[in-house]
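Exercise (ungraded).
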Amino acid sequence: MPITLILTAVVLLFAAVAAMSLRNLVHCALMLAISFSGIAAIYLQLNAEFVGFTEILVYVGAVAILIVMAILLTRSGEAPDRSVLTSGWAAGVAVTAMVFVILGWAILNSTGLPPTVTPAPSATVKNIGDVLMTTYVLPLEIIALMLTAAMIGAVIIAFREEEPKEKTKMEDGRWKVEQPSTLSTPASSLQPPASTGEKA
Amino acid sequence: MFDKLDQIFVTALHWLVGFLPEAWRPAASSLICIAFILMVFPALFSIVTIFERKGIGRIQNRYGPNRVGIPFTKIRLAGFGQFLPDGLKMLTKEDIVPRNADHIVHFLAPVVLLIPVLLTYAVLPFGKNMTLADYDAGLLFFLAVGGAVEVSVFMAGWSSRNKYSLLGAMRAIAQMLSYEIPLILSAVTVVMMVGSLNLSKIVEDQNQYTFGLAHWHVFTPWGLAGFLLFFVASLAESNRTPFDLPEAESEIIAGYFTEYSGFKFALFFLGEYLGMFAITGLGITLFLGGWTAPLACLQWIPSYVWFLSKILAIVFVFIWIRATLPRLRMDQLMNFAWKFMLPLALINIVVAGIWHYMALLPGWERWLVCSAILAGAYVMFGLGLMHRQKLGTRVYKFAE
């Protein structure tokens, strides 16, 4: 195993464990960003340039920021006093280890997989672009349409509804409050507008 | 003779590495290249700070730094020695960390800022055969790594436990995310026309001459529009005036690095300028022909000289803009990015497609059609953005 892979893996695993076990959520998110960059480094070592760069662009540049913003907007930012581990953590670790052993055993002993190592396919950016624009053009377009729909939905949620506002106007050196003129009930349109500013 | 001068750094590198055993050569050559970047661009930074201070001083009708020269002599160098005492001052200043700050994150933020900024230099072609890491997807690498700057800005703003810092970081992140989209979309046109994400190939594509004039992308309608969009977006990405809201002195002290002093502040300063040079270099590579000469008769000038002088020219325009324009407001900034630059960048992509397919027709029709579409879109979006702004003669109102 090359030394670069071992180094990357150590950093990646350390960051991933820290992302789960630190108390301060912002620290966890930053550790998650480190583990994302570790994953990108492993992709790059496997000669998967496009996936590696996209991992950095999307996950480190956007998803990490999104997580951090979500934490800031929802929590007070203070770290909780109690431990991050619940009481049953030992049982959880035991179950996870058992699942890992069983899955590993099953994969290593399975006859379904061909034992020969296939040569690594060349996946340059040009190949990926060609395939995306020919074979997989329909899924690509569907994904684009769904993303556009999601974006329009987000804009509609964020859109501020126009409300009739009280306008303030300067008159004779005093601030005067004008009532909104867009009241829809006919009764109010018949009556003279309540003039609080003139009395003052 | 001129070819040898052009390749002098490449041959020097090969000559130096030739002394080492075969196995060490790749590592040694990378190390020398890294040292080269670490020497040249911080040196450029220190000189540009002086140019900026003197230039702004000149524009604002004052002197700027004009005292520091060589110590113990009468030589004053017109103040161009100022960066040395400035650097010494930064190094020796007290490093103040707020008591409630998150110490580890506060310490790491300037370091994390410098890493992606320095990484972006790996893919820039500084001259002929002078790209350090000639990735197949170099442009993607640049944009991806450059996007990681936002994490460090957030780290700095959040860890200081200061409302001005956090406000500055929020502004910076919102601004960088918004302007990254027109930046990338304007670069997409070049990728479409060249058919490669490799920056060296993009430069090679512009290294052709008709009637002695270079085929720079900026000399086409889509290229001009793309360059202008890229230029404005890169101003915003490097937090320069008129987009310097993240560090607006009059509102939020210094933004996300309010609580930084001493050398940590210097690192932020350095990171910001290095980021500016890098994104300028990318703009030059994409639209202004990279290291190629504008006229065929000027090709004897070495390629790295062209690249550096183009960087300095663009940085000069940045300084000029800083001395001229006032700061935007936050809503104006966002409106400009989302309602003007983004649609214009999308239309520019369509125009690039039209340009490509109208190349089959001989003559000047494609120039007319593409320019007309872009000019029309510019006017329409401009009018749309000005609508309901009620801009007119300014009326001054005073309290009695």
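Further reading is listed at the end of the chapter. For now, observe: The CA atoms of residues 26 and 362 of chain B lie 49 Å apart. The longest helix of chain B spans residues 25-59.
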